[in-house]
Specification:
The chain is an alpha/beta fold and about 130 residues long. It has helices at about 10-20, 35-45, 60-70, 90-95, 110-125; strands spanning about 5, 25-30, 50-55, 80-85, 100-105. It has five helices and five strands; from the N terminus they run βαβαβαβαβα.
Length: about 130
């Protein structure tokens, strides 16, 4: 299955996402800030998917998206944003900057699993 980096400043969200996705057989790495996420990406270049909170202290969601794409140059690397942000203009900017999907918090585990499967499984088939 996929190697996934989950980045959120909320320990509860990290735990929920980790449990939901590890139950599907994915290898989960976690980071509690954008800065630590970038370090994890540098030391783990084979990560398939980043699940990023958008509003965190320090590095902004857009900066994290852009910097992640500079570190992981593989076109199969995808980014899914998990955020309470609902403004269409914010979502559009993130998608323009390189995000591949957006889920609004609170979310259902089934929704998360479905979105992750759509992003990682087509590439696994090739």
């Amino acid at each position: 299955m996929a190697s996934i980096l989950v980045v959120d400043d909320s320990p509860a969200v990290l735990k929920i996402v980790r449990l939901a996705l590890s139950s599907q057989g994915h290898n989960i790495l976690i980071a509690s800030s954008g800065e630590s996420a970038l370090e994890t990406l540098k030391s783990n270049p084979n990560i398939d998917l980043g699940i990023f909170d958008y509003n965190m202290p320090g590095l902004s969601g857009n900066e994290l998206i852009k910097e992640s794409k500079k570190i992981i140059k593989n076109s199969k690397f995808k980014i899914l944003v998990l955020s309470s942000e609902k403004k269409p203009e914010v979502i559009s900017k993130a998608l323009f900057d390189g995000a591949d999907g957006w889920i609004v918090k609170p979310f259902k585990n089934e929704e998360l699993i479905k979105n992750v499967s759509e992003l990682v499984e087509p590439d696994d088939a090739n």
